[in-house]
Design goal:
Layout lengths: L1 H25 L2 E7 L2 E8 L8 E6 L8 E4 L12 E7 L5 H11 L5 E10 L12 E7 L3 H16 L7 E7 L6
């Protein structure tokens, strides 16, 4: 029992330390807008991530005591291309995402909000799907936010001839509006 508590405590302290160092060094700011019924959050950053990773976002000026996980919907730029943009596409529901949508609807799209990032988390390294000659990607609804950066990474790898992948097919199932 004591070992479990010690391990949990160490993990909490390490994660808090990494989060503080990351946010003190980089001081991230997010642009929030509404696009096609989705909340689009864009954060310029020097952080590195891989397709399919997620990150916890905390907006100090919106709900300072809450952090929420979101899948990163973009891929980082290559080293020589400079600063990357972390993009999140979020469907507003209830609670925190509803508040974000209300903020996005009432503010100027150019306004930037301070944001605290915790992460990224998930599988690191190169996209292992690059090692196949043909790839099939399937997504349902907002699951596209996980698939989109994988697709973008595969397309970039195919253009740069980085791996044997020659074809990618993607299917996205969405609810019909009935109209």
């Amino acid at each position: 029992m004591n070992a479990t508590i010690a391990l949990f405590g160490f993990g909490f302290i390490a994660r808090t330390f990494i989060m503080l160092v990351t946010n003190i060094l980089f001081r991230h700011h997010a642009q929030i807008s509404l696009q096609g019924g989705f909340i689009c959050i864009t954060i310029p950053t020097n952080l590195k991530w891989s397709p399919g990773m997620h990150i916890f976002l905390r907006f100090a000026h919106i709900r300072p005591l809450e952090s929420h996980p979101f899948t990163i919907s973009s891929i980082p730029k290559l080293e020589a291309e400079g600063l990357s943009e972390m993009v999140f596409m979020i469907r507003p529901e209830t609670g925190f995402t509803r508040v974000l949508a209300e903020v996005a609807a009432t503010i100027s799209p150019d306004r930037k909000f301070p944001v605290i990032l915790d992460g990224p988390y998930g599988e690191t390294g190169t996209n292992t799907l690059r090692s196949y000659d043909s790839v099939l990607l399937l997504a349902g609804g907002t699951g596209i936010t996980f698939i989109a950066p994988i697709l973008a990474d595969l397309v970039r790898a195919m253009k740069q001839k980085d791996g044997p992948c020659k074809s990618v097919e993607m299917y996205w199932a969405v609810k019909s509006t009935g109209k």
